[in-house]
Amino acid sequence: MLLLSITTAYTGLELTFFSGVYGTCIGAVSRFGAEEKSLIGLSGISVGVGEILGGSLFGLLSKNNRFGRNPVVLLGTLVHFVAFYLIFLNMPADAPIAPLEGTDSSAYIKSSKEVAIFCSFLLGLGDSCFNTQLLSMLGFLYSEDSAPAFAVFKFVQSICAAVAFFYSNYLLLHWQLLLMVIFGFFGTLSFFAVEWEAAAIIARGSDYGSI
């Protein structure tokens, strides 16, 4: 559970980012013109589409998955890292802490509405990869006493989401992205370790069943 808490902490940080911080960043970019505020709604829709697609692919079809949970989590990590890199290039660094009037600062590339909405989709898709596999893992490891395990999961996730909301008012965008990359990297490694142990449990169970 301690190892899974690292992964859970990452899901709390990125939950805050795509649900609160990223929409604020999009709405603060003056270069998007008169459509900057309406793009916030489109961003939320894109996140939802990514969540639905990922939940359908990796949740409903997981029964036929012969390769375990690790490939799905690895895919979620890669999708999120691509999204973070594109956001880093596409959004001004001061977008999260910009005043109500917005920011005229330049990003590393010319800020693109299409890239911004595509990143929203990637954030939702990656989040669904993590959540479906985390919930599946908890249900497997704690099948006989799942309530405390899911309580710890929600507790850690909510605490980290609250912490992320706090620092999002003070840190520039690239520092927030760096924090999520660090937690995402170590959270993925810790999930791999737990999945390998779960595979060992299944192997031992099949050995006992054949005796």
TrEMBL record:
UniProt topology in membrane: Multi-pass membrane protein
Quote the subcellular location field of this record. Membrane
Any Pfam family hit: UNC-93
Where is the chain membrane-spanning?
Answer: 39-60, 72-91, 173-194
What are the UniProt keywords, alphabetically?
Answer: Glycoprotein, Membrane, Transmembrane, Transmembrane helix
Coiled-coil regions, chain positions: none
Q: What is the protein name stated in its UniProt record?
A: UNC93-like protein MFSD11
